[in-house]
Structures are given as C-alpha cells and as structure tokens.
Amino acid sequence: MGKQSSVLVIGEALVDVVHQRGQISEHVGGSPANVAFGLGRLEHDITLAAWFAKDERGERIAKACRDTGVKVAPGADRAPRTSVANAEIDAAGKATYQFDLSWLLPELPVAGSVGHVHTGSIGATLEPGGSQVVRALRANVDSATISYDPNARPTLMGSPGAVIGRVEEIIALADVVKSSDEDIEWLYPNRSVADVMRHWLNLGPALAVVTRGGDGAYVAIATDDAIVEVAPRRVAMIDTVGAGDSFMAGLISGLLDADYLGGPEAREALRAARLVDVMPAIDRAIGTSAITVSKAGAYAPTRAEL
Question: Torsion angle, CA of 150/120/244/70, rounded to 10 degrees?
Fold first, then answer.
C-alpha cells in the first residue's frame, strides 16, 4: 500500500512544438506523461502506458522516462510516428493547440498487479484508445484505486456534448477527480464549479479538487458537504506549462504517502477520510505546482525541493 504501491499511468506522451515570437522549440509533453514524470521524480514506482514511435521524437520521450525513473509499458514505442501538439503562444503567454496524433494502448501490466491507476486528457477520450482505457480501468477497479483529470482539449474533443458521457463514465470509476475551473466552464457551461463538484462526488469519487490557476484550489470530499477554498503559494511565475499536471502528481503522491491510494484498503480509508486528513496531500499539490510555474516548461520537482 501507500508510497510503495506501483502506479500505472495511462495516456498520451507526445512532443509539444511551441511557436512563440517567431521561435520554435520542442518539449516532451502530454498531460498523463507529465503526471508520470512528476510522480517518478517524487520517487514513486511508475509505469507509463503511452503510444509513441521509435523515431527521434519518440527517443526523447523514452529518455524523459529514463531520466525521471519511469518504466515504459511493453510495446508503448510501436506507434507509426510520435504524436505532436503544435502550440501557438500569444502575447499574453496563453497557448492554443493543434494536434497531430494517434492513440492506442500498449500491453498493460496484468490486472490486479498495480495499486493505483491514473488517466486523463486526450487518452481517455480519443478513439480507438479511449475505449481501451475504460476497459483497462474496469479491469483494475476492484484491485486498484483510480484517479482522473479530464484536462479538456477542445480542438481535439470537439464539443462538450461529444465527450461528457465518457468523462462522467470515468469519473464514476474514479476515487479522485482533479480538474481546472476552465475545464468545468467548457464541459458544463452555465453550471457553477460547486454544483459540478457535488455532481461528481455523487457519481462516485471520494475526493474532487478543482484548480483555479493563480487563485489556488477548491476541495470537496464525500464525507463533508463543505467546499473548501485553498490559497495558492505566491511565487515568481515564469510560465504555467505543466502546472496542472504537476498539481496532479503532487496530489497523487501525497495521497499515496498517506495510504489513501494504493488498493482496496486505501480506498476504504479515503472514503472515510475528512477534509483535514487530505489537506497534507493538497498542500503537496500546491507546492509541486508552485515550483513548476517558477521554472520554464513542465518542470517536475523532487522531494528534496519540497
């Protein structure tokens, strides 16, 4: 259980091609991959089930896994080519994405052999891999805890109506759901964040967290009607690349260390937990994301830095 639990992260690993002020730079990214790298840097036992190629960009993904201590699921490098996200950065520093990607699941560890499974973003909704992700979650739900970050990508997902069924199907399987207020605004126009958080807890998770950029986060837990506002940590910001994924990694890490994730017993403990019990994990999430925004790119901090 807990910190020693093996964690399977399922979802896209790709290369971000960033266009800013006439300059082009490339970085390894993909929301689930960033979460895996973050957890690897925090010394957890991580396997990433992604889909990339044995090409130059794919080798950079494989190297990022090696550098952060993340194992790669067998066959994850069998894609015909490595997926790319073209990011146009405007004068205000906001990114708009165009994607060139394919998504299938590689071979996964045997169901029941991992303590926790995380998924999110494109990998959970883009077919044919999205349906494979749901099957993988269902295969592991009795033996492992599950976390999910919808991390909406409107340019790929189309309309909220096209993906909301899948998003809620996965939320119903999850123990922890983390989202941003921007994602909620897109997925549920005309509904308040508080209303959506309560709706999500009613679907099944024990813990719902919504990040608010530089304004901190909202936290809600199934054992309590309150929705708590958590203040951000003030830092000198360089950019927000990977901040949400760093928050997710910190949150999962804190919950693993507290034995609130990592198998059926951990799930029972999380279901009985109060807000005060999960606050150290929320604090770690705020801390990891604060360090990330104080550095360029999707920087993942270590335990020593926290």
Answer: 180
